[in-house]
Amino acid sequence: MKSLIAAVATAVVMAPAAYAADLVVYSAGPKPLSGALAKGFTAKSGIKVSLFQSNSGKVMARYQAEKSNPQVDVIISASWGHAITLDKAGELLAYVSPEASKIPASLKTGTYAAQGAAALAIAYNTKSGLPAPKQWGDLTKAAYKNQITMPDPAKSGSALTLVQGLVAQDGKKAWELFGALANNGMIVPGANRAALNPVLQGAKGVVFGAVDYIALGLKAKGESIEVVHPSGGTVLAPRPIMIAKSSENQDAARKFVDYVLSREGQKHVAARLILPARTDVSADRPGWNDLKIIDFDYVAAAGEAAETKKMFADNTRK
Amino acid sequence: MRPALFGLSAVTLIVIVGFPVVAIVLFALFPHINELSFREPFSVLLPNLTRPRLIDATINSLSLSFAVTLVSALIAVPLAYMRAKFPLRFGQIWDAGFLVPFLIPPYIGSLAWMQLLQKNGFVEQALGFNLAGFLFSFPGIVTVMSLHLFPLIYFTTANAFAIIGTRYGDVARVFGGGPVQVFIRIYLPMVFPALLSSCLIVFILTIEEFGTPEILGSRFGYEVIVTAIHEKFSDWPIDLPGASVLSLILIVIAFFAFQAHQRLSDKFQTAIESQTVDKRGQPLSPGYLFAVILIFGTALFVAVVMPLATITISAFMDTLSGGVTASNLSFNNLIGIFDTSSEAWQAILTSLTLAVLAAVFTVLIALVVAFTVVRLRSAATVFLDFLSILPNSVPGMAVAVGLILTWNQTIWPISPYNTPVILLLAYLCLMLPYPVRMITAALRQLPKSLDDAAYISGAGEITVIWKVLAPLLGPIALAAGFIVFAISTRELVSSIMLAPPGVETVATFVFHQFDQGSVNTGMAMSLVAIVVSGSIIALGQRLQGRSRTGSTS
Amino acid sequence: MSHIQIRHLSKSFGDTKVLHDINLDVESGAFVTLLGPSGCGKTTLLRIVAGLETPDEGVITSGDQTFVDTSNGVFTDPQDRKLGFVFQDYGLWPHLSVAGNVAFPLKMAKAPQSEIDRRVREVLTDVQLTEHAAKLPEQLSGGQKQRVAIARALAGKPSLILFDEPLSNLDANLREELGQEIRLLSKQLGLTCVNVTHDRREAQILSDSIALMKDGVFHMFGRPEDLFRAPRDVWSAQFLDAGNILPAGLVLQNGRAANAKVLVPRGAFHLAEAVSPIQAQALNCIFIEDRYEVTAVLAGNIIKIFSDRSVAMNDTIHLAVDEDAILEF
Q1: Whether C88 and B472 lie within 8 Å, measured CB to CB
Q2: Which residues in C lie closer than 8 A to residue B2 (C-beta atoms)?
Q3: Which residues in C lie closer than 8 A to residue B457 (C-beta atoms)?
C-alpha cells in the first residue's frame, strides 16, 4: 500500500517534468504503427516521444479540451476532415516536409500531409455463400437482401469520405444508391468495427465501405473475408499528420514529420497494410496503380459535412 | 471538531466531484471556456436543447432507466431475501458469483450477448435458433442491462435483510402472516431505504451507460442522451460545449431522481431496534434448499456463466469467422497478448494499482462522508449527499473533459494531469457514489448510542469512525471496495481520454484491440483481466472470512 | 459542595423550544433524576451535560471545569468532560468483547496496558461479570449488557455518571435488583449521578432527589418522598401516580368548592367498619405484597385503595377517609 502511494506520488512529481522534454504525439490507430514510428524516430533522432494513442474522435476531443494549456506537438488523425478544420481555424503550423515530394499533390497541403491512406472497399464473408460483388451498386441486388452493413458516416470519418466521394461523382444517383441499399435491408450499426464484426461472425454477409487495411489485416490473420475495391472507382480516406501551431517543440515536430514521411517511416505504414502516402514505397496490398480513385474536393466536401450526414441519415433511416 | 470533519468531507468532495462537474457546467454556459474565454456566453444552450431528436433521446433514456431499475429490483430482491436466510458457506460462493458482472465491462458484455444470440451466433450454432429479434429491441437492451446491474441492488438489499434478522418476521408469523405476506408487509418495508438507495444508483447508472445502448441500441435506431453525447465527442467537428449541455440534462435528471429518493426514503425510514446481525442463516428443509439453489443457480447461469462462457470461447477462437469448431480454438490469442511485448502486463499492473488505490480511497472518503451526512445531518450535508451521487449521472467522457478543464491549467503549481494520478482522480470521482451509497445506507441502521458511548469514553470523531464504525461497517465497506475495484479495473470511457501518453490500462488495451486489431485478442485480454481481478477479490473475501471466524471463536 | 451547576440553560430545535432557562445544582455524591413525560426536554438536557448537544444559551460547570458557557463560547468536548454515560439501549460495540468495551475509555486515555488490564478486572468485579470478560455483547442477557455498559462508564474513574433510562429495557425484577445495585455502587464510589427517565418507579429506586420536568422547565424539584407526598398540582399528582384525584365534595364536608380537586393518597382510604356516606362499587381486588389492592368506582371516579381484607367484585364498599392526609390543590 505504502509503496503504491509512493509510486503514485513520485509519478505526480516526476511525470510532468519527464513529458515536458519529450515530443508529444497524439495519434489515431493502429497502435502498432504509431508505436513503431515513435520507436524508429527515437532511435534515429534521440528525441523521446510521448505517445497518446486513441481513435480520431478521442484524439481531437483531448486536443480541444486542452486548449487553454496545449500539450500536443504532432497530431495524426484518421480523418482528413480534422486537418481541414484545424487548418481553417489557423491552428496548424505551416510546414512542407522535403520528404513530401513523393506524395501525390491531392494528399498534401502547406500545413498537413497524408501519413498514409485507407481505401474504402466492399468486404464480404466468403463462408456466407454470397456472390462476389464487383461494384458498389451490386449490393442492391436481391442476393444481398438483409446481409449488408455499413459504418455510420456520423461515427466513421472514412465512411463519411466514401459518401462524399460517391456523391461528388454521381450526385443524385449516389443518394438513390443509399436509399436502395436501405431498402435492401442494410443496417448502419455504428463505427467501422460495429459494421465489420457481424460480417465476420456470420450474422451479416457484407460491409459496404469497409476500411480496407483493417479488413486486409484480418484476412491475413485467417479470417474468411475477401476485400473488393470496386473497379468503377473508390475513394481514399487519407490520414493527416500535422503540427500544432501552439507546439513549443517545433523543430522536433518537423523532424518527426520528416521521419514519418521518409521511406523508412512509410515502410512502417506499409507494414500495417495501409496505402503509403509515398508513391515510391510499395505495400503488400493494392497500390496506387491498382486502384481507381475518385478525385474530389475534400475541402469543399468538408464544408458540407453536416448536410451530407443529415442527407445520409434521411435516405437510410426509415 | 465537527466543523473540521464537515470541512474535510466538503473539501474532498468539492475537489474530486465539484471541480470537474462545475467545469462541465461552465463549459455548457461558456463555450470557449477551454480557451479561458467567456465570449459568446449561452450561445450553445438553446440550439442544443431545442433539437427534436433530443426529446426522443430523453424519453428513451428515462424509459430505459425506469425499466432497467424495475427489472433489476425484481431480479435482485427475491435473491437477496433468500440469501439472508442462506447458510453462510453457500452464501459466500453466490456472493462471489454475483460480483462477476461488475468485472465484465458493459461493452464486452453486450458484445458477448450479441455473439451469443445473434444470427449465426453461438446459440444458433449449438441449438439451431437465434434471438436476434429479441436482443435488438427495447426488452433486449433492458434485459442485458438489468442482468449487468442487478447485483448492486442485490448486495445492498441482502445486507439490509441480514441486519434486520429474522425476529420481526417471526413476530409476524406468530400473528398469522404467511411467508409471502411477511415478506411483503414486514421485510420489504424495512429494507425499503436500502432498496431505494440502490435503485437510485441503478437508475442513474442506466441513464449514464454508454456501451450497451451504443452496441445494441444502434441496431434498431434507439438513441439515448448518452449516445447523443458521445456523438458530439466523436462526430467532427468535436462539440465539447454541446456535449456539456447534454450532460447538464443528465445532471438535472439525476437531481430530480435524488430528490424523489430523499422524499421516499424519509417516508419509509425505519429504525432497527437492536444491532445484532444474524449471520448464521437458518436450517432449511431439503426441498426448500433445492428450490433456492435452483433459483440462484439459474440467475447465476444467465447473468454470469453465459456471458463469461461466451467471452472465454471468443478468447480461444483464432478467427471470428471460423465459428466454434475444434480447428478454430487455440491458445494463440492468449499467447499473442503476452508474447509480443510487456505492454499487456504493464496495462494489467496499471489497472490493478489504480483499482486498489481507487477502492481504498473511495471507501475511506465514503466513511467520512457517510458519517458527515448521516450523523451531522444538516441542510449543508444534504448538499454533500447530492454531490456524492452526482458523478454517477455524469457520463465518464464528460467527467474526463471536466478533469482536463480543471487540471490542465497553468495556475496549479503541480498538476496530476498527464500523470497516472489523473486516472485515479477520474476513478475516485466516478466510483465514489458506490461506497457512499452503500455505507450511508448501512450507517443509518447503526444506533447512534454506539457513537455517543465512544465520545463519552474520550474518543474524537476520527476515532469513532475508525475504531467503532469502520469495524461495524467493515463487511459492507469491503463489499463496496470490491465493487469499486472491479469497476475500476475495466473503466474505459474516461481512461481512454485521460490516460497520459504511454500509459495503458486494461480497458484501453482492449479498446485498441477492438478498434484496430482483433476482437478475439480483445476478448482474451478481457478474460485475463476478469480472471486476475476476480481472483484478487476471491482472495480478499477468503482472507476476510478467515479473520472474521478467527475473531469470534 | 455542589458538583454540577447549570445556569440559564435554553435550547431550541428549529421553532420548538425544548428547554427554557434551566437552573440546577447537583451536590457532589448525589443521585439526581430528571423525570418527565417524553418530549419534556429531559434527554436533551442530559445530552447537553454530556456534550453530545450544544445549548443555545447557558452555562454548565462541573467543579472548577466549565463544560459549556455560551456567553464566551467555551465548549468542552465530551471526551474531555471525564464523565461516564449509560445508555438505554446499552450502546455496546458489537465487535468488541466485554473486556474490549470496558477497556475502550482507558485506551482512549492512553493508559498503560497493565493498568488497563487491572482496571478492567476491577470494574468487572464491581458489576459481577468477571467470568464473561471474553464474551461478545450478543452472547449476554439484557441485564448483563447493562452491567457491561455500567462497567464501561466506571472504567475511566469519572466522578460524574449520566444515565439515560438505564433500567427501562429490563424486566421488573431485574430493574429493581440492578437499580438497587447502581444506587449502592454510586454511594460506595462516591459518584455524582444524573439520571433521565419517564418511569417514576425507576426514579424512586435510584434517586436522592428528583427534578420533575414538564415542557422544558423544572416543574418540581425535591426528595422523592416530598414530591410524591405533596405534588404541586393535578398534573404532577397524575404523572407521579401519587394517589386518587377526586372532586373535593366527594370526600370533604368542610364546604370547599365541591369541584376543586383533591389528592387522596391510597393509604388515606380504608374500609369503614360501619355504613359510611362514601360508598363505592368494587371492580377488582388483587393481593399484592402483603395486602389487598382494591380498584373501585366512586361516583364515576376510578379509585385505588389498600385493604387488609378481600372484597368481592361488584360489592358496594363503605369507605372512611383520613382527612388529614388529603391534599387540596
Answers
A1: no
A2: none
A3: 79, 104-105, 108, 152, 155-156
Q: What is the dihedral of CA B74, B75, B78, B79, to 10 degrees?
A: -160
Element (H, E) at C25: strand C16-27
Is residue B282 predicted with pLDDT exceeding 90?
Answer: no
| Cis ω before A189 (30° cut-off from 0) | no
First to last CA, chain B: 37
Domains of chain A, each with CATH number or no CATH: 2-117+238-284 (3.40.190.10), 118-235+299-316 (3.40.190.10)
Q: With beta carbons under 8 A apart, name residues in chain C contacting B455.
A: 50-52, 77-79
Report which residue type is found at A15: A
Flag whether residue C309 sits within 8 Å of chain B, measured between CB atoms: no
- B309 with B402, same domain: the answer is no
Q: How confident is the model over C94-116, as a mean pLDDT? A: 90
Query: Is the residue at B99 inside a domain?
Result: yes
Look up residue C296 and give its amino acid.
Answer: A
Q: How many CB atoms lie within 10 A of CB C302?
A: 11
pTM for the whole thing? Answer: 0.79
- Nearest by CB to C108, from B1, B457, B552: name it: B457
What is the spatial distance between Cα C154 and Cα C147, in angstroms, rounded to a whole number? 10
Residues whose CB falls within 8 Å of the CB of residue C14, separated by 6 or more in sequence, listed in order: none
d(CA C266, CA C274) in angstroms, rounded, equals 20
Q: Which residue has the higher pLDDT, A159 or A61?
A: A159
Q: Say if residue A281 is exposed, middle or buried (CB neighbours under 10 Å; 0-12, 13-18, 19+).
A: buried
Q: Report chain A residues whose CB lies below 8 A from the CB of B356.
A: 1, 4
Q: Domain check: are B458 and B552 in the same one?
A: yes
- Is the pLDDT at A199 greater than 50? The verdict is yes
- Domain assignment of residue B131, yes or no: yes
CB C307 within 8 A of CB C292: yes
Answer yes or no: do B350 and B481 share one domain.
yes
Q: Which of C62, C76, C77, C97 to mutate to test the interface with B (most CBs of B within 10 A)?
A: C77
Q: Cis (ω within 30 of 0) for the bond into B106?
A: no
- CATH for B480: 1.10.3720.10
**Strand order through the sheet with C16-27:** C16-27, C2-13, C57-62, C65-69, C74-75
Cell of C65: 471545569
What gap in Å lies between CA C1 and CA B537, rounded to an integer?
A: 62
Residue B37 lies in a domain: no
On whether both B323 and B377 belong to a single domain, the answer is: no
φ/ψ (deg, to 5) at C295? -100, 135
At residue C144's C-alpha, the angle toward residues C143 and C146, to 5°, is 65
CB distance B255 to B247 below 8 Å: no
Which chains does C contact via 3+ CB–CB distances below 8 A? B
Same domain as B303, residue B429: no
User: For residue range B304-358, what is the model confidence (pLDDT) as tens digits?
Assistant: 999 999 999 999 988 888 888 888 888 888 887 777 667 788 888 899 999 999 9
Q: Which three cell numbers stand for residue B169?
A: 418476521
Whether residue B307 sits in one domain with residue B362: no
| H or E element in which residue A207 lies | strand A206-211
